[in-house]
Amino acid sequence: MGKTCRIPFFRAQSSNPGNIINPSIVEAMPKYIPNSRFSDCWASVGNITFYHKNGQSYFRKKSVCRFPSSAGQIAVSEIHRRALAAWRTLVHDVQLRWNEYAKAVPSHRPPFDGKSHITGHNLFVSAYHGFAQLGNEHIPGPRKWTPFPCVVIESISTVTDEENLRLICKTIMAKTSEPSRYRLHIKIQFASAKVGKNPGKMRMFLADENFRRLESFVVVKVPVSSGLWSADFNEYRIFCRYSLIDTITGYRNNFKEGTFAVEVNSNLNVPQ
Fold first, then answer.
1. What's the pLDDT band for 114 if we cut at 50, 70, 90?
2. More exposed terminus of the chain, fewer Cβ within 10 Å: N or C?
């Protein structure tokens, strides 16, 4: 039986089996092929990173950031540092409660065997970030994880004024007794028809308010000052990744992706 392995390399079956993968073949052979010793592989070693997409393991040259962080990225990093520091202030019994609640949360990383879960530390940091994004940064208390309802953005229309482009997101949420406890969290890239998706150019925004009902029009404001869009262009493609934040626990679910064609309109009423 093969084993999953956090050590991101395997021994090539060649005349020199002790060698780690040659970086020069990363682009030519991006898919990791399981073998009798290791059935899965992820994380980084040297200048190679192993990653997963749709359950398949691939590898590539490790990316290196060559530009200074933006003000927004620095702010998020500072929040993360405060979250790590806050975890260290918790008494051990409280940390154990977080660990217990985390057992019900499926891991977003391999192995994808349905048996793994995140740690209490992961769950705490997720809740801390969630509340910070809601403008309510504080040390959260441990709460049980409850599954999130599925939500889908069906379409996006726009309304403009002098300061903002309002994205009117028509959403449908699966049946839940408390839709009003959730807030839409979305990352957006504006692009012309000839430009493809680039996750590095996506910027994060939060809906103006929580969901009101299962079928809602959710408003997301994108300021003119963001530089993401211009009134000089009438049509855009919007690439987005969106998820929910539970305003009671601070927890967030896995993101979904969508692509929408929008026209920049003005003097329109926002649906309720």
1. low
2. N
